[in-house]
Amino acid sequence: MHLGNMPEKNSDFSPAVKPFNVIQPTEKEFDLFRELILKELGLIWGKEKIYLLHARVHRRLQYHQLQTFQNYYDFLQSEKNRSELQFLYNAVTTTKSGFYREKQHFEFLRSEILPELKERMIRKHLKLRFWSAGCARGEEAFNMAMEAHDFLGTKLISEGGLRILASDVNTEVLDSAVKGNYTTEQISPVPEVLRKRYFVSDSDSDKNNDVLSIRSNIRKLIQFRHFNLMASEYPIATKFQLIFCRNVLYYLDPDRREQLLNKLVDHLDDQGWLVLGITESGYRLNGMQKLAYCVYRKN
């Protein structure tokens, strides 16, 4: 599993530095960060998000011993501090995820998508390529892998028959995803038959029996990569039969939504499927047919 260029890890506080209170951002300071976050991540923040900036970012100011958000903004503008942007990204991006979140999509995957793909794999020796775009802590990507492995079988997906790309801009959640460790509460939505088949006790969790790990045969199907969906070009040289990009568009500026949707469609193979979040409806995508549950298919 490859993560690309990850920032050097550090804690929120240096052991030698005592945390201090950070002043709430002014409206002017908030506007600076709102514009920066829009530019870098495509996220749109209303005025009510001023509390969010302080709540999620003040520890970075404490870490660098900066008194105001203006100081932190100026710090970010320096070329020598550009790596700090990644810590800002990690702080402000939403990381909610879960197994079988919006389970209608996985029911559709099993009943409509995988049967057709299986037939094409057998008849045309098709090699499957899936993408979990905005994968957070990895549940969605592992969900796709488990469902595909269970339905298609080991023989069809071995030797490159199935590869799944899982990407996110947040390096903290990617680090968690690579480990593939989840609590029993987190995996409770997974059907029992799949829990028994694809999870094992984690030997590296300090004898914590509450933590289970994804089996290696599922982990090896997935490549985790770090990149920004707002980038002008993606480091991808393949087309996908299936792309999940759920609950990402909701947070984006309308223009950025359109740009992202066009890029996702461009990276779909002919007759490929694009799956958006259940609430992300109302989009008309050129060359795409809407099926059900915000699932689209390329004509």
From TrEMBL:
Its GO biological process annotations read: methylation
- Domain called CheR-type methyltransferase: residue spans: 18-281
Matching entries from SUPFAM superfamilies are given as: Chemotaxis receptor methyltransferase CheR, N-terminal domain, S-adenosyl-L-methionine-dependent methyltransferases
**Which reaction equations make up its catalytic activity?**
L-glutamyl-[protein] + S-adenosyl-L-methionine = [protein]-L-glutamate 5-O-methyl ester + S-adenosyl-L-homocysteine
Whether Transferase counts among this entry's keywords is yes
GO terms assigned for molecular function: protein-glutamate O-methyltransferase activity
> What Pfam family does this protein match (any one)?
CheR_N
- Coiled-coil region(s): none
Look up the EC number in the record and give it: 2.1.1.80
Top enzyme class of this protein? transferase
Q: Which UniProt keywords apply?
A: Methyltransferase, S-adenosyl-L-methionine, Transferase
PANTHER family from the UniProt entry: CHEMOTAXIS PROTEIN METHYLTRANSFERASE
Instruction: Provide the protein name.
Output: protein-glutamate O-methyltransferase
Species of origin reads marine metagenome
